[in-house]
Amino acid sequence: MSSNNLWFNMVAGALLATGLGIMGLRTLGDMVYANDTAAVGFPVEVAEVPAGGAEAAAGPELMPDWGTLLADPAKTAELVAEGDKLHKVCSSCHNVEPGSANKTGPMLYGIMGRVAGTHAGFAYSDAMKAYGKAWDYDGLYNFLKAPKGYIKGTAMAYAGMGKSSDRVALVAYLRSLSPSPAALPAPDPTRDPAQAAAAAAAAAAPAAVPADGAAPAAEGAAPAAAPEAAAPASEAAPK
User: Is pTM, for the whole model, over 0.70?
Assistant: First the structure.
């Protein structure tokens, strides 16, 4: 055998051995990873959402109970301080000092209780002028959530403040800018999440069934009629 053939056989053998080795490693890796999910990645647990989507799971959003939230002066002061920080996002378009000029948006001092679209010297959109209601707690809260959704056609470019607690704080701050804000509404238990949840649970609970298994009689239902007595023999039908 010539030296050239020997060299060729050695190279071919080395290449074959390398190929077989790579295939063996790949097969071994597939076997290991197929039985080890941790080696593939971390499994993600997805919370099961009831029928109806996330809104059905959380229930409808309740409006704030202003009469309770702002009844405590100390708690109100905390909300106003938080709203003061949050209003910085509004300061590029709105002044808040008494007698200050309008900017891209109208001056906000005294906004609580002011009729929408009426502040002197500002060119309001037709939609805002058509709204024409005095700004109250619920109105400001809803407008801050989604201005263009609440008043369709408004020129306000702000997309909205999604977090409910932030809107509550900002409404408390805007209220503090008014020398005579709208009176606080009376406390409303239907707006309390705990009480609303309890009422919903009570309404969904099945009616209690007596121990004997008989269904309770409906209120106001007439008592069952007694079986008709047998007719006297003298009144029997003629033969």
Answer: no
